[in-house]
């Protein structure tokens, strides 16, 4: 099945170049010139991934990201200037899954998009579609998570982090292992990026977040007591 990509970018040339790369990759593409158009297209079409510029007329990328996250966990890649580290972190706080800095290579953008569209989590036995631990239940087919029987909305990246840790219960996962598994070897962020995603995940898990232990100078461990 073809994937539908929504490209939200007010610069016509950048939007067209990115669109051509995704069309060549076999995707369908929707284009928005500003935040208002982006919301309208998102609400009227089925979208598999959103590429979202931050600085736009009418409605900026922050507002678009926040409004979409109120309704959906569709993967979002934000486009930001390399010097604006705080912008990147704010994007993650609002629920973005990844970012690409301007000026960027369309090939890198396409690679990041493919990573989000194709889960990097280890493939479980085909008959094992659910991960459970105490009050947490993860459905690997529907990409849904329940805590105490109530469904919570995780971003694609948060889901991958939780799934990878749960598949390796009681094993210390280094930051390098987590980066390679969730972001891939092309990752160029820093510790603050990982910390932000982990903080968001823990906040959503509530009291169950205590199962994710930070191992000083080592990494993380999903702890399940026998």
Biggest beta sheet attributes = 5 strands, parallel
Give the CATH superfamily of the largest domain.
Response regulator
The main sheet orders its strands as 2-1-3-4-5
Estimate nothing, just give the exact number of structural domains: 2
Rounded mean pLDDT is 86
CATH fold-level label of the largest domain? Rossmann fold
Label the structural class: alpha/beta
- String of helices and strands: EHEHEHEHEHEEEEHEHHEE
Which radius of gyration do the C-alpha atoms yield? 18 Å
Q: Find the count of extended strands (DSSP E, 2+ residues).
A: 12
Could you estimate the helical fraction of the residues in percent?
Answer: 25-40%
Named CATH architecture of the largest domain: 3-Layer(aba) Sandwich
Distance between the termini: 42 Å
Number of helices: 8
Shape category: globular
Query: Low-confidence parts lasting 5 or more residues at pLDDT below 50?
Result: 120-127
- Content of β-strand: 15-25%
The CATH class of the largest domain: Alpha Beta
Domain Response regulatory: 4-117
GO molecular function, one term: transcription cis-regulatory region binding
GO cellular component, one term: cytosol
Pfam families: Response_reg, Trans_reg_C
